[in-house]
Amino acid sequence: MLRNDVSYPYPVLRTFLSDYKETFFHSDISVEMMPTGYRLNFDFSVNNERITKLFEDGYLSYGVYVCCPKTMLREMRYPSNGENYIDLPAEDVHYRVEYAAYIVAVRDIDQYVDEDFEEGFEGIDFSIPKGSIFGIGDSGSFDATYKNDIIKDAASVIQIKGSETEKYMKVDLDKDTIVVWMPIKQSTMYKNMAKTKDNLDLLHAVVTIPVLVEAIGVMAKTGEGVEDEELSERPWFLTIKKAIKDIAETLGETEQTMYDYPLRTAQIIMKNNSETALRIIQGGL
Q1: 54: buried, middle or exposed (CB in 10 Å: 19+, 13-18, 0-12)?
Q2: Domain spanning 25-144: which superfamily?
Q3: Coil, helix or strand for 31?
Q4: CB-count burial class (<10 Å; 0-12, 13-18, 19+) for 218
Q5: What element of type H or E holds 50?
Q6: Going by DSSP bridges, is the β-strand pair 60-68/95-105 parallel, antiparallel, or unpaired?
Q7: Which of 3, 39, 215, 245 has the smallest CB count inside 10 Å?
């Protein structure tokens, strides 16, 4: 992404009052999934008549800088024909996409001065070359995921494998699916039991729930700023993340709440599996 914390040799509009006394850059961006990719809808405005005139005269343009590490896209995109959106084709973006709103000088601006300059710039005129940043707005990110990135459901992201060396169940999150390594004897027992549908709820209680709890705990740390872009692009990660998002919307809760209580979230994902498993055990006593 472009650096927004740098100083400029001329006044720059921001979303808060800084180089101008009363003028600021209002910038809202929302993301919409389209049949052929993604659309960034925006609501941009500036509360300054002189700057508005620079837009009308073709000196300034709104722009959205888009960065996608996976596809190596790093580009300022401009709306065409006065439209309030830009489209991102599916082939341009995949997995994490970052964006930020800008105002860009698309022609040289000579002897620019504004009565609203803050004290340090009052009475000074500036030459702003074509291509210069004139205003810096809000930024954000989203995950560009498509149908083939999402595994069928949260339970199906887990794969059981036998190990000659492991003595205890161990989770490996570095694959497209979550690999659960078990001693050979345990993995064989699991796979034989899984052939009978009536055993699945018990197996979910023994394996799936604790594995989901561990995975959600790792995801929560990633969300808090632990940088692991490769992990966050794994299909298992995207599948569970989507499940959590859908649950949060259904329950009217925040996604952060889901991550704060991973055991509760795992139980909800698995449709209150603990109650079903306890009833099965009770019936067998």
Answers
A1: buried
A2: Immunoglobulins (2.60.40.10)
A3: strand
A4: middle
A5: helix 49-56
A6: antiparallel
A7: 3
Per-residue model confidence (pLDDT) at position 93: 85
Span 214-225, pLDDT tens digits? 999 999 987 554
End-to-end CA separation in angstroms for the chain:
61
Q: Sheet harboring 60-68: ordered strands across?
A: 73-77, 60-68, 95-105, 133-144
Strands (DSSP E) found in 90-203: 95-105, 109-112, 126-128, 133-144, 158-163, 170-172, 178-183
**CATH code 2.60.40.10 region(s) in the chain:** 25-144
Tokens of 285: 């006593």
User: What single-letter amino acid sits at 156?
Assistant: S
Joined together, the tokens standing for residue 50 give 């002189």
- The residue among 2, 31, 260, 255 whose CA lies nearest residue 143 is 31
Q: State the pLDDT at residue 235.
A: 84
- What H or E segment, with its residue span, contains residue 183? strand 178-183
Cβ pair 65, 113 in contact under 8 A: no
Would the CA dihedral through 230, 234, 240, 245 be positive or negative? positive
β-strands 109-112, 126-128 pairing: antiparallel
User: What's the residue count for the chain?
Assistant: 285
Span 80-98, pLDDT tens digits: 877 899 999 888 888 889 9
Q: Determine the Cα angle at 246 with ends 244 and 250, to 5°.
A: 115
43: number of CA atoms within 13 Å, CB side?
3
The span from the CA of 179 to the CA of 160, in Å, is 6
Nearest to 139 by CA among 64, 191, 220, 81: 64
Q: Note the pTM of the prediction, 2 decimals.
A: 0.62
* Alpha-carbon distance values, 26 to 1, 44, 45 (Å): 20, 5, 5
Give the type of residue at 61: S
Residue recorded with tokens 């973006």: 93
